[in-house]
Amino acid sequence: MPINIPDNLPAAKILKEEKIFVMDESRAIHQDIRPQRIVILNIMPVKHTTETHLLRLLSNTPLQIEIDLIHPKNHTSKNTSIEHLETFYKTFDQVQARRYDGLIITGAPLGFVNFEDVTYWDELQDIMDWAEINVTSTLYLCWGAQAALYHFYGIPKRMLDKKMFGIFKHRVLDRKVPLVRGFDDLFPAPHSRHMHIERQDIEKVPDLEIIAESDEAGIYIFGTKDGKKIFVTGHSEYDPNTLKEEYERDLAKGMDIQIPVNYFLDDDPSKPPLVQWRSHANLLYTNWLNYYVYQVTPFDLNGNSE
Questions:
Q1: Range of 102's domain?
Q2: CATH number of the domain enclosing 98
Q3: Within 13 Å, how many C-alpha atoms sit on residue 16's CB side?
Q4: Is 235 among the residues known to form the active site?
Q5: Which one of 142, 194, 213, 280 is the catalytic residue?
């Protein structure tokens, strides 16, 4: 089944070139099925890039997916045009009366900023609280995961001595958890962050379970036992060149940045990246949509009886 997005969204052209089935609204309404409603709060700077990353993974499922994109109302984007936001995005106040099957809250390059100093922190807290009632399952990514931990459980941000940057091997701790069904014993995933999460902080919260972790990169996937909140500390959605672009960007700024670990062929930045994480990335999002959204969401999101 296809993903249902506006035909003129920049990501649509890229996905169609990749032979991903993209359907516009006029065609979607003729299918006699209820699409899964997914809302994405995109707080990454270059929004069209993150749109493509996430929509590519959400499309790899038999379900029809209906997407709403939202951005913080109280923040002026420096890297995405007003025209793009006004054309393709809504704000929280425009969608909060709706119920959704799933919500994704992206990461953001805010590792060195106190949560309370983020311009849209109050709005983000409202969205996270709203999701507890109005969304079947929420996927929190990287900084979004850390923000949710702080908001819901008071777990503080812990900074690393140097950036966690590269591709790291992870292991599944409990194969019975549906989210990691089909994962290999060891699987790679990208990380790009200045923060980390202490295992002891998660273990203090009885409602949380650790699902996958790395000896080098630490906890990677964890969530509430009911599957309503899923946290991912890395970036399985990244495309082949994302870490390369981040590395070159930081070099151009004169920053002291190390080469991404296990990323370039022979660890040589003059050689192309070696993509190792596509399979697990697709499984992660497909399993989330199937087991944590589609299988448990009500047929009528508004609670009306048939």
A1: 3-161+168-239+277-294
A2: 3.40.50.880
A3: 13
A4: yes
A5: 142
